[in-house]
Design brief:
By secondary structure, the protein is α+β, with helices and mostly antiparallel strands. The chain is 43% helix and 13% strand. Strand 18 and strand 19 form a beta hairpin. It is elongated and about 95 Å long.
Length: 956
């Protein structure tokens, strides 16, 4: 069966791209899913080929054994098409379908729609011809001119520039009624200047929007936040004065003259028949609407902006990519469109890229503290979507971030932070990055100067404006935290209020996007906290410099003493559960008998925790704990623990990670380990754990006061400068408060992601019921874009989700088997071997990290990647672990020292580790891979150095 010559938009199917071209296919997709798009008739590529065949132009167009396709031949063909009449049967078919599709329309918009037009990599914007206001009798002529424009010299040069073939160029043309709008323009579903994914940019003018597209007028520009349902206006830039009546004569795209130079596409003059097509009543209605809009002071009202913003989010979700949308506002409300019509949508092809000539240094610092080593695909795509908030945040303050690359990059499924960017920001602020990067989770690289906390006052003065703005934000960090807390509460209420039985796709999409708002706001609040922390550390260190030889140690001691964090409270609660379990024979016997089964059923891997989490449901361990422990004091205490901490998780920033109340087996395993430990201090006496060996609890409690008292014996002028101690005291007090705020922010964000996870599981169960997913957990193998498109396209996309999840599982198995460096340069990415790691990575016998807790100790290493491996821990060994959390509490009493892969000086994990008073070093890149069980090492928690004195008896 031959391909059809003509198709309406409603007749187009998803696989019709070779027949109708990109522009028509995109509009048909929007129309098929209920978005307001005018009726359209597509002159297909089969119609075009039939015209070429009729005039015997096929060899020039497609080539033959004897004729090569050349630029000159196609330019000749373009001219020939403009003067060649349509074949008789083609003309008859065109006129018949026009009369059938548009019985009462006399004026048309005729637009090109090549099969490689409006694609992700090349849009042909301004290259192919569009004509507006074409009378019915002139449509065949306009059709020929559109074909010719795609074969013109500029179009061919564009193709050659992007490596597109010039042989057999397939052309379709879209015919629609010519719209006389009240207002029109273009819109971008992301900010095309900054790349911000949580902003919309709308350009609008009165009357037709072709003047906006062609650049003849400066439109009103609206920048909106993607925060439904109100979509707050961030700013508005007024455009030119009201356009004259002649503005509409310029069409939206450009074509080419016979000489090959671009020119504005023509709008064919109206004939008397065309003029009659605009009834007096409709013209008066449009004029009244224009008058109202002009009086209001802009092309779009606040209500119209919100309506358009909602449509734009739906379009982006449906097309699964940022979109450039051409729209028009009419006086007609068609199918609830509130007057809006969409005339074109295509991917944005020139978003600000991450290309940079700098060999960017990437770091996994400050991630493992609250994220698994390999997050779920849904979490990774959320991080990637909101990472641009970092750049826009600092650019707004006035920092120069050119040629630094993005803030975050997903490499083999793992999130890496831009260490080069962090150094640039500190350098522009006049600060030395060596010590301060440790505050926010990084550590110095080998060969860097050990000098820390110094200030380049000249540079600080040159950057005084952005630095002052940043410090002002830091002083308002409490307000930032309060705003995030309010946003979290609002999101929780909105998610809980979802009417699952009656919710529309748009309603579900808006609620799904709440996580983007939460992630963006958390990112900015975390920056403010980090900036305030850096400022407090710098001030305290500068004030203490003349008074002590080790300002960093004094700051650490004064900041950490008796600091009450959520992790510490949860750890005490776990210890209390372990004490109850030890005291009750029934509980102790049950936990002990099943602990070994639970541990052995979980495969011990050489990598740290990755997605997907090991599910205790895969075994029967602890599955009957409620029946087995019914009536025991432990079960009552455990239920009380779950009521308080059940909504948390090991990696609660990842919505894909199960929460404790969903799967309590890991908690029960932790309690079982603690209950079987040789030493179990009373939780009420936990302060005894906070002092180093040889120091009494009373001595420890006085250590903070002694640290301050020692300053009175400062050198030289220090003893005559008491104001320095007062300033340092104020800075450290502020630092303690900031540490608690950071802990609160991460708790709030973890709770917000728990709310999102609860909502996600409701949606996942619906998709399982429809047969789109095998089990609810498959949902978290999807990306943000895939969930959004499924919400909009539903049955068109849903059946493919199970296969997509299976394929991504296989990919993540390769990711999990790949040993990823802790620090990675952009030039190293190409050297990563899937399933293996970085080729030629050298190891050093002296490793440098971040000093977390002072003291020096020598001993043999035991590497534990998970708390479940505690049976291998030896008393008096130096523990090496990826990160710390309350699950490690039962192991710490056996350790002499601690080496941790990740964490900052004031990070949540480091604070928990320091409660035990162990000499400790954090941020040793790839520590769990570089050290082997039995290595004899010297650990210096004061300098951050770890030296391998004697490798274990194995090849290193």
């Amino acid at each position: 069966m031959s391909a059809p010559w003509l198709k309406t938009l409603d007749e187009i199917k998803g696989d019709d791209l070779p027949l109708v071209g990109g522009k028509a296919l995109n509009l048909a997709t929007l129309r098929r899913h209920g978005l307001p798009v005018p009726d359209g008739l597509v002159v297909t590529t089969a119609f075009f080929e039939a015209q070429l065949k009729h005039h015997q132009f096929i060899p020039l167009w497609a080539g033959s054994p004897d004729v090569a396709v050349t630029e000159g031949a196609l330019c000749w063909l373009a001219d020939a098409l403009k003067i060649s009449p349509l074949a008789r049967e083609l003309m008859a078919a065109l006129r018949s379908r026009l009369a059938e599709t548009f019985p009462n329309v006399e004026s048309f918009a005729v637009r090109s729609s090549a099969i490689d037009e409006d694609a992700r990599d090349h849009a042909f914007s301004g290259i192919h011809l569009s004509e507006l206001g074409v009378p019915r009798e002139m449509v065949p002529v306009s059709l020929s001119r559109c074909w010719a424009s795609a074969l013109s010299k500029p179009a061919l040069q564009y193709r050659q520039q992007y490596g597109l073939s010039i042989q057999s160029i397939r052309l379709a043309v879209l015919i629609q009624p010519f719209i006389q709008p009240v207002a029109a323009g273009v819109a971008f579903t992301v900010n095309p200047l900054s790349g911000a994914r949580d902003e919309l940019v709308i350009e609008a003018t009165f009357g037709p929007g072709n003047a906006v597209v062609s650049g003849q007028v400066t439109p009103d520009r609206y920048r909106l936040a993607k925060r439904p349902p109100d979509y707050p206006l961030i700013d508005r830039t007024p455009g030119d004065a009201l356009p004259s009546a002649s503005t509409g004569r310029t069409p939206p795209d450009a074509s080419a003259t016979e000489e090959g130079h671009p020119q504005r596409a023509r709008r064919t003059p109206r004939t008397p028949g065309t003029q009659r097509a605009l009834s007096t009543q409709r013209a008066l209605s449009t004029q009244r609407a224009l008058s109202t809009q002009r009086t209001a002071g802009g092309p779009l009202t606040a209500s119209q902006l919100q309506t358009l913003a909602q449509y734009l989010e739906q379009i982006e979700a449906l097309m699964a990519a940022p979109q450039d949308v051409e729209w028009a506002l009419t006086t007609e409300n068609l199918a609830g469109s509130k007057g809006f019509l969409f005339l074109q949508t295509r991917p944005i092809t020139a978003l600000p890229g991450a290309a940079t000539s700098v060999d960017v240094e990437w770091s996994r610092a400050d991630n493992r503290e609250f994220l698994p080593d390999l997050p779920s695909p849904l979490c990774a795509s959320l991080m990637e979507r909101t990472q641009d908030r970092a750049l826009s945040f600092f650019k707004r303050l006035g920092f120069n971030l050119e040629n630094t690359g993005p803030y975050l990059k997903i490499i083999f499924g793992r999130p890496y932070l831009n260490l080069t960017l962090a150094r640039r920001l500190l350098a522009q602020s006049g600060l030395n990055s060596t010590g301060l990067l440790g505050v926010i989770g990084h550590t110095q690289s080998p060969g860097e100067s050990a000098l820390a906390y110094t200030v380049d006052w000249r540079q600080a003065w040159e950057s005084r404006r952005p630095v002052a703005r940043l410090l002002l934000h830091g002083l308002q960090v409490g307000a930032w935290l309060s705003r995030f807390e309010q946003l979290s509460r609002d999101a929780r209420r909105s998610l809980a209020a979802t009417d699952w039985a009656n919710a529309s796709s748009t309603d579900l999409l808006n609620r799904f996007h709440l996580r983007t708002q939460l992630s963006s706001r958390m990112t900015e609040t975390n920056f403010v906290l980090s900036a305030a922390t850096v400022a407090a550390v710098t001030i305290a260190a500068w004030a203490l410099a003349p008074l002590t030889d080790d300002a960093g140690r004094v700051i650490r001691e004064a900041t950490r003493a008796d600091l009450e964090t959520r992790g510490k409270r949860q750890g005490r609660a776990l210890l209390e559960l372990a004490r109850i379990a030890r005291a009750d024979e029934q509980t102790r016997r049950y936990l002990t008998s099943l602990h070994d089964d639970f541990t052995s059923s979980r495969k011990v891997e050489e990598t740290s925790e990755v997605w997907p989490p090991r599910n205790a449901g895969e075994t029967r361990s602890f599955g009957d704990f409620r029946q087995a422990l019914a009536g025991t004091p432990f079960l009552a205490a455990f239920d009380e623990f779950l009521a308080r901490y059940g909504q948390h998780a090991l990696f609660e920033a990842d919505p894909g990670w199960p929460r404790h109340d969903e799967d309590p087996a890991s908690l029960l395993a932790t309690v079982a380990r603690m209950a079987s430990a040789e030493e179990l201090p009373d939780p009420a006496e936990m302060t005894a754990w906070q002092h180093p060996p040889g120091e009494t609890p009373e001595g420890h409690r006085g250590r903070r006061g002694q640290a301050w008292a020692s300053l009175r014996s400062g050198r030289g002028l220090g003893r005559w400068l008491p104001w320095r101690r007062w300033l340092a005291h104020l800075a450290v007090r502020w630092l303690r408060r900031l540490t608690l705020m950071r802990d609160q922010l991460r708790t709030l964000y973890g709770r917000a992601m728990t709310d999102c996870r609860t909502w996600d599981l409701h949606l996942a169960e619906r998709w399982v019921a429809r047969g789109w997913l095998t089990e609810p957990g498959d949902y978290f193998w999807l990306t943000m874009e895939e969930v959004e498109r499924t919400l909009m396209a539903e049955g068109e996309v849903g059946p493919t989700l199970s296969a997509l999840a299976r394929a991504r599982r296989e990919t993540y198995q390769t990711y999990a088997a790949t040993e990823m460096p802790y620090i990675l340069r952009e030039s190293d990415v190409a050297r990563l071997v899937p399933g293996h790691g970085l080729e030629g990575m050298a190891l050093s016998s002296v490793l440098s990290g971040l000093p977390v807790s002072p003291g020096q100790v020598q001993g043999r290493v035991v590497v534990l990647r998970r708390p479940e491996d505690s049976a291998r821990m030896q008393k008096g060994a130096i523990l090496v672990t990826p990160s710390t959390d309350p699950a490690w509490f039962s192991i710490f009493p056996q350790a002499r020292g601690l080496i941790v892969e990740t964490g900052g000086l004031l990070s949540h994990g480091s604070i928990i580790a320091r409660e035990f008073g162990l000499p400790a070093v954090a941020n040793i890149p790839e520590a769990t891979s570089r050290f082997r069980d039995g290595d004899l090492v010297l650990l210096d928690g004061s300098t951050g150095l770890v030296q391998i004195l004697e490798p274990a008896n194995r090849e290193r």
